[in-house]
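Sample 1 of the test manifest.
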Amino acid sequence: MELTKIPTLPKFTGGESREERTLSREPLDKSAFKQVIRKMNLKVTDQRLLILSALHEGRTHVTAQEVYEIVSAKDPEIGFATVYRFLRTLTEHHFVTEVRMGGLPARYEMTPQSHHDHLTCVSCGKICEFENHEIEALQEKVASQFGFELTSHVLELYGVCPDCQKRKKAKASFGN
Amino acid sequence: MELTKIPTLPKFTGGESREERTLSREPLDKSAFKQVIRKMNLKVTDQRLLILSALHEGRTHVTAQEVYEIVSAKDPEIGFATVYRFLRTLTEHHFVTEVRMGGLPARYEMTPQSHHDHLTCVSCGKICEFENHEIEALQEKVASQFGFELTSHVLELYGVCPDCQKRKKAKASFGN
DNA sequence: CTATCAATGAAATTCATTTTCATTAAAGGG
DNA sequence: CCCTTTAATGAAAATGAATTTCATTGATAG
């Protein structure tokens, strides 16, 4: 029986301030980014290198606007459309994954090596990532029962995080 | 062990033309719609009754634009904003469920009595509905492991439907 | 029947996203 | 290294869904 993978400290990637963890990936140098761009048959430009490094070093789940602000700090000449276009291209080539919730602006993250889904607090916006092979297996099973070849899925759980549960209880008792 | 519920005929709700099945609910009369509106502490208007009947009789997963066109046919005076506003209100009160896929316009359906998730064909847009209690149970488990109280979830599976698989194979062999 | 206040319709607005187009610059061959 | 080709860029305009505004209309309680 496969167990749900639970990190020793829940990966709360965010909080009231919408801060998220910074990624601690192995440092990818410029030439690695160039490889990525060349794999897509695109020309290597400073703008694209900047965007990739922003995605790589920055926090996960950034909006296009946020990426634009990050790269603008290093090169004020860079255009918004360039960021948008490249994010779309990266998404189409699956180097980046687009996450959309409700009608909010799309958020982007480097496509994670190990697939994960999201558990989001409806009260404060915290995002926990999780991975559950049992659920994945059942999804495959459902698809195959309908004769589908599964290509991808979106699983977003919404709930109230422990902190917000406490906060609500505190407020409730204060109110009485 | 709970089995995935599979209808005798897969509920293919759509096809190339984006047609979807019409619902065969027990006929709700006007007074039932009035009840729904009154439950929300809203005033009963002809427009709202029209919108409800369009949602009830029409196909599932309609866009606001489609609802507008349906009700326009019966009452050309009706405004787009009225449709939008009422769909939002219905959604907030959980009488209607909003489904968003990618950046496409939101689609609405009467909130299903038995919860179901969607299996969508990325090639032709067909939507199959399914229900899997094992997956639901595992979702609860994951949430509780993070200390969350689960309030809702979105599970969308994407794949290639049997028809499109055949079509692609046919095209491939024709090409050689 | 009348007053009150929500609901409506038309149009304007917002905001994310996408496209246009003139200019700039990457990459490959000489 | 220079030139040519063609893609990439940046600014601005365009698009399109969603939302809001506001003057008018109409539902409902008394």
